[in-house]
Fold:
Amino acid sequence: MVEQEVAVVFNEQVALDTFLMGLQAKEVVREAAPGHFVMVRVHKGFDPLLRRPFSIAGTLGGDLFLILYRVVGQGTGILAEVRSGSRLSVLGPLGNGFRIVSSGTSSCLVGGGMGVAPLLFLAQRLNGMPFSFLAGYGNAAQIPALDSFGLNPETFHIATEDGSRGHHGMVTDLLEEEVARLKEPVALFTCGPRPMMSRVAELALEQGLPCQVSLEAEMACGLGACQGCAVEASSATDRFYLHVCTDGPVLDAGRVAW
Structure:
């Protein structure tokens, strides 16, 4: 983990209210693994005061890391106005990442909305291994272009709630079909809205499949000091609560009380 000011190389709109930012930091790229996140100070002043957490969505070359974000409030609104050549204070990489499965097991990545971000990084690392990527959105306007991640678009299967692209319905519909289709052992990886992840975890339990979830939460520090990102643990865990920043964000699905 390092804290440093890093250069913004690009900050491009890639979908409706959605931006992809590339930041130059060899130290972050060297230490980053899929599932890790960074805490970014979006403004040098005191408003907003706190850093914002962003999943690392991938790397480019040996010195650029990517964050994918949607403008939803003051902090991300400020971030969307940042121009290339600017410098931002970044703390990271932080948290615990995904455990990549052994050879002989296929991976199925299930993302919803901005939850695709850590899964895009995972897909980069799985390149050359068998995997499928299922992504769900409200409508086609929310779907970001995938060119910047160097991934094969044929690997991706899209669901939209309004039917404007791909499957008309929920991404978990596609998951049920994918699990039924696959013959070899499969491991599930998911990030997105909590109801979606809950269904993925439920399906994993029904089918006896390993499942890792990347939880999303509001964070003030990202280091476990504020304890503001607590989630209820399942009865299978010897604690009442888990903290997304230090215990996660990636956890085995069975450790979370859904």
Remarks:
- The longest helix spans residues 194-207.
- The mean pLDDT is 91.
